[in-house]
Amino acid sequence: MKLKSIYNFLTFRVRSLLLVGLVYFLVSFVYSRFATENIRYRMPALSKMLLLPIFAKESKMEETSEDLSPHQSFQLPRVVEENIWFEFPAVVEPSKEIFIQSKQNGRIQKIHIEEGQTVKKGQLLLELDDELIRLEGEKLQINLLQAKSQEVITLEKWNHAKQQVEVKVREIDKKTELIELAKKEYEYASELKSKKEILWKQGYLSLSEFEKWKLEEETKLTQFKNLVRERDSLLSLVSTQSNAPEDSFVEHLRDWKEKNTILEKAEYELSLSHTKIIRNQIKSNDQLRTDAKLYAPKSGKILKLNAKEGELTNHNPIMSLMENSEISVTFHIGETELPEIQLDKEIQYHPSLSNNIVAIGKLEKRNGYLDPKSHGIMIKAKLTKNFQSLLPGMFGIVKISSSHKKEKILIPTHSLFGDANSGFYLQLKTDHGIQKRFIQIKPYSETESEVITGLGPMESFTVESI
Questions:
Q1: Does 407 lie in the same domain as 433?
Q2: d(Cα 154, Cα 138) in Å, to the nearest integer?
Q3: What is the model's pLDDT at position 65?
Q4: Domain count of the chain?
Q5: The whole model's pTM is what?
Q6: Is 376 exposed, middle or buried (0-12, 13-18, 19+ CB in 10 A)?
Q7: 32 touches 52 (CB < 8 A)
Q8: pLDDT tens track for 356-380
Q9: Which residues constitute the domain of residue 36?
Q10: What values do phi and psi take at 40, rounded to 5?
Q11: What angle do CA 2, 7, 13 make, to 5 degrees?
């Protein structure tokens, strides 16, 4: 039993090894026959494991120097030392965007501008339907005429009331003069009666004559009292119910004049207030008519229209204006790049669209906090050159020069073989002949390309003479 168990175990192990070996040779055959040289170069470790010469096609990796064209020569790459450029994804935004909205709600009657149009400060942008406001203004003008007429009428009534008061005052003054005159006449008659009474007692005057002078005195007294009574009757009309009995008659008279004309005065002042209210309403109506027209607050370019003719306005902005047609780019940086960010430092903006001119700008603003969503710090740069063709919302790359240096390996663009689909490669000079090697590149200038990987600074490559 023990030998049988060992036999079964060995049989299972042999079968597993044969199966693994079969799968390896099958994968090696497929990789060696169909893997391109670019794939083999990019994954050298996998090539060492799977590439078997017995399965590979006839290799063209090495050629003899006799295959060189007489127009070909060898040269070393050009090595330059340049500052390292940081690259950040960026988006174009207006430097100053103004959101314009109507001060009142209404129906849009006419739009005088279009999106993308350049406008000047004070230019008419939009008109609302102001028919109801205009009719209300005409009604207020009619009300103003009526209020002015009422103002004239109440003023005349007040003046008439003051004249009536003055008439009564003159009557009181006249009664007062008559009282003074009657008082003097009474005093004179009383004094004369006293003298006549002495003569009558001494027998020089008869009783009938004395009675005559006595009757004269009583008549004067009666006249005096009647005048005083008539004046008191008039003065009762000017009673002001003053709590200060020591007030003079002149002060009583002044208060009485005010109280007897206060109603007419209040009506006049009320008409003045009513006229003032209507004038203020007319000013408000004029302001509403002015607000029915929307003007550009600043010079710039219209970015977006959010309304159409015939629509009702609301509290949302009707349009947005890019002030002075100035644009900026915003992007986020990490904490490690923060020391390289200095305000007024020059930047380059490369639009995502090809064949576009590189825009130049300066760093303008740096946020003082780390955005928890992007885990970066927002930076804003204002573009100053070559930005006329850019529009808000465009994407691109911002490049910022750093203080650190880096060597770059440059080769002539015409020395490259291959294309972007299959890969670019060079023919290198080695001890065993000419070697075909794939490299990764990116454009550097019109005539040169920068080698990212695949070529050392001391490796020679073939260059065809131009």
A1: yes
A2: 25
A3: 43
A4: 4
A5: 0.53
A6: middle
A7: yes
A8: 678 899 998 888 777 777 678 889 9
A9: 2-58
A10: -60, -35
A11: 130
